[in-house]
Amino acid sequence: MSCKKCGNCCVDFSVSGIGLYQMRDFLKEHPFLSYSGLSGLEIDKPVPKFKCSRLITLDNGLRVCSDYDNRPDFCRNHPSSEMTKFVGCTAEIVLERL
Fold first, then answer.
1. Which of 81, 96, 97 is CA-nearest to residue 13?
2. I want to staple 12 with a disulfide (CB 3.0 to 4.6 A). Which of 20, 41, 50, 87 is the partner?
3. What is the pLDDT of residue 77?
4. 42 by DSSP, 3-state: which?
5. How many whole angstroms separate alpha carbon 59 and alpha carbon 70?
C-alpha cells in the first residue's frame, strides 16, 4: 500500500526515546516541530506528541512535506521503524515522493 498523503503521521506523533525530559533539546534541534500534547496518560507514562510545520496542503487536498529532501531520520524511516508512533493513520503505508 502506498502513502495516502493524509498527513496524519505529521500531526500528533511521538518519537522513540524522546520523553518529557528530552523534549526541550529535541525541539531546539528540530525548530520546525511544535509540542501538541501528551499521549500515554492512560498508562501513567506521559509521552510528548509533536506536529510539524513543514506539512502543507496541496490544491488537490493531499498533504505533503514542504522540505521532503531535508526531513529528519525519524520521518525518513517512517513507517519502517519503531522511531515514530502516530495517531490516525495506518502502519502499512510506505512513504513515496510526489
1. 81
2. 87
3. 77
4. helix
5. 23
